[in-house]
Amino acid sequence: MRRRAVFKNGDCNILQSRISRRRLRYLQDIFTTLVDSQWRWTLTIFAIGFIGSWLTFALIWWLIAYTHGDLEEDHLPESQADSGWSPCVLNIHGFTSCFLFSIETQHTIGYGVRTTTEECPEAIFIMCMQSISGMIIQSFMVGIVFAKMTRPKLRTQTLQFSRNAVVCQRDGHLCLMFRVGDMRKSHIIGASIRAQLIRPKKTKEGEILNNFQTELSLNADGCDGNLFFIWPMTIVHQIDEDSPFYNLSAGDMLQERFEIVVILEGTIESTGQTTQARSSYIASEILWGHRFEPVVCYNKERQGYEVNYSKFDSTVPIDTPLCSGAELAEFYRLQQSPDSADVTLPYSDIPSP
Question: Domain Potassium channel inwardly rectifying transmembrane: where (predicted)?
């Protein structure tokens, strides 16, 4: 059995290793790093950033007060009226007062008893710099939080792929089929779907390609991979002479080591962002001789088409040849020949309902 490259929920089973200067590369793209990281790490980093900036500017305010002499005993707030001392910042007693003043300045929550004076130009300059720094940090945080909450990836939680794929006949051809659905009322605009077959391949030169990808041709209801995605749709890959499954019978397919990765892409109607949903099927998840149950019917009472998602993964067994697509095509060719003998095909052993 092949190990998955893409899990059923769409996550890629890829482990990155031995990347030179990995941390530096991630820090150079800090915005994407914080958006992709888990919430606890993002909030922890922002908490450290805020507290660090408060403490840094509190130290600067303390140094300004200390170098100006505001922290001397005769120049403290309770003695300033008697000594006639004019401090850089009013009502500063020590580092704790500087820390509180730093928070008030950075978040523009309004000065109380502590405020800058015209005595020290450097204090006015630092006040302006801290206000600008606070706005930058808050804007950066708001942008990160908004980007995390509106990630298109979250929209994929309401996009569904059928648990299994099936193989059955449709219009005389063997077809591989799976189903996709969208549970939301807001639709995916310009939806398109494609599938990649991943399996080992040996080249003519003897090179082994363990993860060779082949594009599978898909259609839905006679159309190409572009979907009018208003209800669950059955996506069809016709097993013809151009299909990599053309020479595989039911038994061969069970023994093959392959993975079919399906990718649904489109634009979210409500946000205008592009989203991508993924899933995959391995050989053991392909049911030969089954087809999907209908899930869409017209509800006369509610005057609308009703989708029954309880049957989204349901399949029913049907008579299907166990031979390969190539053998089936040859069988039909012999049947059309005027001098052909009686030819029979093995069919899947279907239990009675």
Answer: 6-152
